[in-house]
Every structure is written in C-alpha cells, then in structure tokens.
Recover the amino acids of this structure.
C-alpha cells in the first residue's frame, strides 16, 4: 500500500495523474488552496479505488503554510512513497515585464515554493532511504523565450534543483523525477488556440504515473517534446531571435 | 470560451458552436447575454443537432467527470453528469456491478444518457436508462438547484429524463447498478432469412435472454429482404475456460477521407460477407462484454469514414401490430435506394413504460441505420421513411435526428405541450428550434 502526497491536487494534470494511481488502492494526502474542491477530488479518488484520502487546505506560496502542510502530512503518514508537486500558475508574461513585484510573485509560486517543499521532503525521504519525488516542471524551462521566460525561469530553477537532488540521493533508493509537459489542454491554458501539439491532462497524467512506476529521471510528455526541445535548444541565437516563440 | 470544436457524431455542419467549460458542480451556470440560450454538451455522441446550439452557448461538461460515491454492497453510484459510461464500467465491473442499461457505445456521458433516456439490448426486460435513476440535481438558469427523484420534484424528474437537455443542467445523478458475476456474456448468434423469422426468434428469446438484438442486411432484396443475424445473450454465471483476456481497443480513423468510404460497392460486399460470417446457422460463445455491447467503440472515430460531409442516422420505432408490414416497406425503400449502412440494427422494445415525458422507447420494433450525407437524395429517402413511420403511428428518435419535420415530431411525442411547461427559458438547442419551426438562424 503506497502513501501518496500531491501538492496542487486539483490542478488538471495532478487530478488526472491521481486517477491513474488510485486503482492500485493507495492512501492519498491532497494539498491545495480550496478545501471544497479537494473534497470533490477526494470523493472521486475513493470511488476509483483509493483506500483512504486526507485533504489539507493550504496556500503553498506562503512559507508558514508550506511548513504546516508538511507537518500535517507526517501527522497522517509515517512514511511517504510518492510525492508529486503539481501546483503553480501561468504568469502573465507581459504584466511581469513591467512589474518586478509580479515577476517575483510568479517565481515564488512556480519555483521557490517547490524548492522549499523539496528541501523539506528530501530530508524526510533521505532518512527513509526510499520513495519517489516527482515534480511537474515544463518544456518552457529548456530555453528562455520572450513569450514566457518568467515562467520558464521558475521551472528551470526547479529542474536544476532536481538535478542536484538526484545527485545527492543517488546512493539511496530515492528516485527524483522531473516531468516536463508540453502544451496541455487545461483551465490554465483555456485562452490558447489548440493545435495538433496539444495533449489532454489524461494523456500527461498517464505518462506521469508510468514515470513514477519506472523511476525515470527526466520525462517529456508527450514523448515527442524531448526531440522538439533538442531542436529548440540548438537553434542558433541569430535565427532564434527572429522567431516569435 | 474554451474547448471545442463542437460537433455532433454525424459530423454534419450546423454552423460554428461556442462553448464554456463547466467543471465544478457547485459553480453557477455561465453568464449569457440577454436573448441568448445555453445547452449542456457532453461527449457529442448525439448524431444530429439535438446536442448543438448554433448562435448560443454550449455548457461543456466533458470535465464535469468526478465520481461522488459508490456503495459496492448495494450498487448505488452517484457521479457528475459528464462521467462517461466507460469510466463507470472500468470502476464497477471489477467489483461485480454493471450498467442497468447499456447503449451501443460506452462513450456517452451520464447526462447524455438521461437527456436522451437511452435504451439498450435489454429494453424488453429493463426498460430505459431513466428507469434506473434514483435521483439527480437539476441546475436552472434562475440559480435554483432542484433535487429530483421519483417522489420529489416529480414534474422536473419526468421532464428531464428524455428532455434533451432543455429543462436545465443535470449536475450529478445517482443510479442503481445491476449485479454480475464476471465481465463475460454467454452469446448466441442465429442466422435468419426474413423478417417473419426475426419476429419469431425475438419472441422466443425474450424470456430466456436478457439481451437481444439483430443485425440486418439492409441491401438484401426480394426473397432475402430482412435477412440477418440475431444475437442474444446473458451475463455469464461462470467463466468457461481459464481467464479470457480483456480486449484492447484497436484502430482508429485518423482523419476524414476526402470522400465517403461508405458506398454501394463497399456496403454490398460488407453486408453479404457479414451475413455469412459464421459457417453454421447457430453459434454460441462466451465473449467479453465490450465486443458484445460496444463493437464500434473498438474503431476510434469511426464516424470519419463517411467523409467530410458526414452522415445521417435514422432510428424509428413502429408499433408491433404494424411492425412486420411497416418494416418490410421501410426495408424495401432502403434496398431500392441502394443506401444504407454496415450496421443496421433491429430490436423489439418491451412494454416497460419509459419514465420520461419525451422518451423515445415505446412498445414496438425499432430499426437504426446510417446513411452517408448525399444531400437532397438521402433527405428525400428519409422523408419517405418518415411518412411510413408516421402512417404506422411510430416515432423517430431525436438523439439520432438532423432533419425530421415539426409535424413528425409533434405526432410522435404527444406529451410535448406538457413537457414544454418544464423547459428552462434560457435553454434551447438547434434541434428544439427546428422542430418548433424556427430554424431560420440555423444553417441546416
């Protein structure tokens, strides 16, 4: 029986991932801002097979609440097998460009809060000597682009932190997984026109559940983004700077 | 605005649709402009325009898909309206439960199943989907949330079942499932050579078999008219040998070919071969529930085979007294026109009353088949079929329809006026305006 904690549990990708994990009958600890929404997800996961589901309402961008949520987690579980960090927002790049406070707030909720949580969780899992830490970052962290580099910066920082964590924990059985989705059709991206590259949360959630099962270090979802990003990273600046990406 | 594009399963163009995502059952209905209307949209498996609202707003319920509660002892399931029957089966079959009524695809939502009061191969025993509903919540445009059940808000309960989404938005529903021993069906397939044999087989099978349905060769003429394969089955009480594998869905149609792949040549070849798919006149086997109930779900997006213009589905029911003669006339017209489909389906409805004021199923014999959209040619044929159906005192199924006349609709649904009292003033559909004679704003 696995103990699974999900931060940002009613984000579309997190919920889809949990639906893939629930039929194995795990115990869940769900963290998010709105307890009514967490209740809805909890009831759903129970019907789908989860053995028990705890919820904890918390704004993870506030450091004291982050600490409280980890304390509550270890009040409910003595051991964590899977920790999935899925919370975040899509900052308004244009607004951030003219406003340092907004930029910092965006980095806080999409990067610093993850790094804070990872710091707390890594200690616990290192002592435990096992478990999986999975974090949803983004292909946006692979190269800074004018359309969303604030978001990309936060995600890249988390990816770099995960690299280091993986190095630190290499001698243990703790797996550290960096999940980089491409375009996903979620409420966060409701205002975008959708094309062929867009994936459903269910598809990405399935990829994440599989990555957790297999312990792969860096996962692009859907898979073809790995190759798209190889190209994007290697386009010379004089070409890249002429694009509107 | 989000999601989309919104189409119905027949892929006929009814003009652009716009939708608003609705994924939290506690939230309010979308704000619409004065004079505009809205309509809940599930998985878009209605064939015509009953799930579309050209010029208005679709309330996109595809993410309103959470389970709420399931009691594995009593088989009572409560879930949101956008949950697919496929999701229910995945969750409940391993725990020994099954849908009380199962249509020909598991890719419909619970909300859609209610709005069309769907039926299945066990209609002669179980009646319609609505017969197994314990309760649901109806969210009206004035913000009221009505708990509807057979004994509470009864008028709304009976108007909403089969009410084509026009009485408001069903946010969640609770249904009674049926117990099963395993995921398998003991199936028999029997060849028949004409309609008289079909009626005789059907009558002989109703008592001993929970599920009955027939495939007919809609292109066979003269002495072969009405030939086909009769399928009947029961839930298996024991698994025959070993643990058979769970089937996987295979192919899908990746894009719509520029021309319909369904034409006279492919149809004739398929139907003639299908009639002879088994050597014996009778064959028995144990099969998984998926190929038994949902053969077409194994081919993803099969509707694209009809090409860019899409297709019509026609489903009618005729009273049993007129059944043999009426169906013979209908099949003659179809065979003479050389139009028709791979899977024409014939089934006897039982006499268990449907709970909805506007439910389509009623005692009689029902026929369902597809026609490529060849424009006036097929519309002319379907008008002729309507004339026969109407003369027999039968009805055409709104969930399948894209073209019936207001007169045909009024004649087939005598409780229409009573129903109209319970519709929501801010809800409408392209279908509803069409059958009320106001189709000017729709490009149909």
């Amino acid at each position: 029986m696995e103990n699974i904690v999900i931060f940002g549990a009613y984000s579309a990708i997190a919920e889809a991932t949990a639906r893939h994990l629930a039929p194995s009958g795990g115990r869940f600890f769900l963290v998010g801002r709105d307890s009514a929404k967490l209740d809805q997800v909890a009831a759903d996961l129970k019907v789908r097979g989860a053995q028990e589901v705890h919820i904890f309402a918390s704004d993870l961008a506030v450091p004291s609440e982050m600490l409280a949520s980890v304390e509550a987690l270890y009040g409910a579980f003595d051991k964590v097998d899977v920790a999935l960090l899925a919370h975040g927002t899509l900052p308004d790049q244009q607004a951030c460009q003219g406003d340092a406070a907004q930029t910092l707030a965006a980095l806080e909720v999409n990067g610093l809060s993850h790094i804070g949580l990872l710091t707390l969780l890594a200690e616990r899992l290192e002592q435990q000597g096992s478990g999986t830490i999975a974090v949803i970052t983004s292909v946006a962290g692979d190269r800074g682009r004018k359309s969303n580099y604030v978001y990309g910066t936060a995600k890249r920082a988390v990816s770099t932190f995960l690299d280091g964590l993986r190095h630190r924990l290499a001698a243990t059985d703790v797996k550290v997984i960096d999940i980089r989705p491409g375009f996903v059709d979620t409420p966060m991206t409701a205002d975008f026109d959708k094309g062929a590259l867009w994936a459903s949360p269910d598809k990405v959630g399935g990829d994440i559940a599989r990555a957790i099962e297999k312990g792969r270090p860096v996962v692009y979802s859907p898979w073809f983004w790995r190759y798209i990003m190889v190209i994007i990273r290697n386009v010379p600046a004089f070409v890249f700077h002429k694009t509107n990406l | 605005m989000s999601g989309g594009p919104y189409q119905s399963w027949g892929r006929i163009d009814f003009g652009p649709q716009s939708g608003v995502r609705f994924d939290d059952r506690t939230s309010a209905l979308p704000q619409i402009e004065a004079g505009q209307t809205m309509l809940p949209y599930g998985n878009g498996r209605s064939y015509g325009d009953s799930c579309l609202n050209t010029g208005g707003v679709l309330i996109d319920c595809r993410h309103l898909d959470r389970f709420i509660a399931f009691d594995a002892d009593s088989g009572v399931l409560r879930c949101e309206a956008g949950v697919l029957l496929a999701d229910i089966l995945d969750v409940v079959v391993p725990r020994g439960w099954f849908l009380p009524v199962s249509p020909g695809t598991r890719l419909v939502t619970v909300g859609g199943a209610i709005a069309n009061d769907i039926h299945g191969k066990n209609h002669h025993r179980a009646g319609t989907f609505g017969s197994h509903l314990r309760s649901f919540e109806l969210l009206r445009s004035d913000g009221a949330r009505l708990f509807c059940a057979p004994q509470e808000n009864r008028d709304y309960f009976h108007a909403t079942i089969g009410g084509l989404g026009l009485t408001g938005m069903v946010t969640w529903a609770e249904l009674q499932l049926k117990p099963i021993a395993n995921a398998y069906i003991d199936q028999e397939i029997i060849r028949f050579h004409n309609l008289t044999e079909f009626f005789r087989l059907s009558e002989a099978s109703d008592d001993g078999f929970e599920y009955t349905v027939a495939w007919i060769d809609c292109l066979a003429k003269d002495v072969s008219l009405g030939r086909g394969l009769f399928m009947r089955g029961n839930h298996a009480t024991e698994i025959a040998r070993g643990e058979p594998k769970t089937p996987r869905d295979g192919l899908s149609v990746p894009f719509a070919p520029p021309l319909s792949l369904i034409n006279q040549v492919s149809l004739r070849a398929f139907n003639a071969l299908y009639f002879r798919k088994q050597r014996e006149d009778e064959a028995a086997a144990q099969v998984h529930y998926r190929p038994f109930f949902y053969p077409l779900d194994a081919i993803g997006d099969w509707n694209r085979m009809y090409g860019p213009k899409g297709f019509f589905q026609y489903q009618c029911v005729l009273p049993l007294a007129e059944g043999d003669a009426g169906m013979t006339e209908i099949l003659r017209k179809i065979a003479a026109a050389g139009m028709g489909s791979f899977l024409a389906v014939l089934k006897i409805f039982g006499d268990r009353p449907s709970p909805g004021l506007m439910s389509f199923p009623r005692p009689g014999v029902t026929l369902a088949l597809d026609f490529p959209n060849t424009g006036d040619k097929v519309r002319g044929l379907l008008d002729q079929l309507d004339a026969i159906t109407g003369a027999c005192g039968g009805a055409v199924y709104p969930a399948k329809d894209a073209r019936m006349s207001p007169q045909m609709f009024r004649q087939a649904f005598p409780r229409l006026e009573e129903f109209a009292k319970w519709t929501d003033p801010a809800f409408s559909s392209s279908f509803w305006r069409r059958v009320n004679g106001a189709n000017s704003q729709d490009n149909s």
